Amino acid sequence: TQLLEQSPQFLSIQEGENLTVYCNSSSVFSSLQWYRQEPGEGPVLLVTVVTGGEVKKLKRLTFQFGDARKDSSLHITAAQPGDTGLYLCAGARTSYDKVIFGPGTSLSVIP
Amino acid sequence: EAGVVQSPRYKIIEKKQPVAFWCNPISGHNTLYWYLQNLGQGPELLIRYENEEAVDDSQLPKDRFSAERLKGVDSTLKIQPAELGDSAVYLCASSIGANTQYFGPGTRLTVL
Prior knowledge:
The structure holds two protein chains of two kinds.
Chain A: E1 5-7, E2 10-14, E3 19-24, E4 31-37, E5 44-49, E6 55-58, E7 61-65, E8 71-76, E9 85-92, E10 100-101, E11 105-110
Parallel strand pairs in A: 2-11
Antiparallel strand pairs in A: 1-3, 3-8, 4-5, 4-9, 6-7, 7-8, 9-10, 9-11
Chain B: E1 5-7, E2 10-13, E3 19-24, E4 31-37, E5 44-50, E6 53-56, E7 65-68, E8 75-79, E9 88-95, E10 102-103, E11 107-111
Parallel strand pairs in B: 2-11
Antiparallel strand pairs in B: 1-3, 3-8, 4-5, 4-9, 5-6, 7-8, 9-10, 9-11
């Protein structure tokens, strides 16, 4: 059983479309992180959210941490082919716990 | 500044053979992690070092896997003997304490 669930597992969209991917858990996390991983590379950190209800924006990417700190979403506006990759959420239940990764959402943006 | 360096990038071996992966973390990063990533999955922690001490190796299959971080800098992860199910990407990451982890490109292992 995955501690962190991500949906959808796969997503293929046309350039210019908007999309949202989700990260859910039955556990409370002290912080959640979102990473993007391109083929043949390691994950790269996009953002860390630590406060329930927190919203962070990174250009066309909007990240939200749920009020109960059990879930998070990533919204991409006007997707571009360069957004293609595996989006991983990861969390730590306390500041001393190891970071646990979800299975990821594989995004493909078609030109 | 150089990122996390891993070698080799790819390795193909036959089952029952030994294999070793090497990681050079970012300079000054005292914490080093080895992860295993199966296709379509997120990374799973194998072992975490604080300097030269392994502080979390609970997920490391100790019957066949071993790791070392002599002098608290470079690290080596070894599998002996390799099994078919060990085929995966082995990622190394480093950080300063519990702060942001920076990942290397990984070593893709194929066991035939």
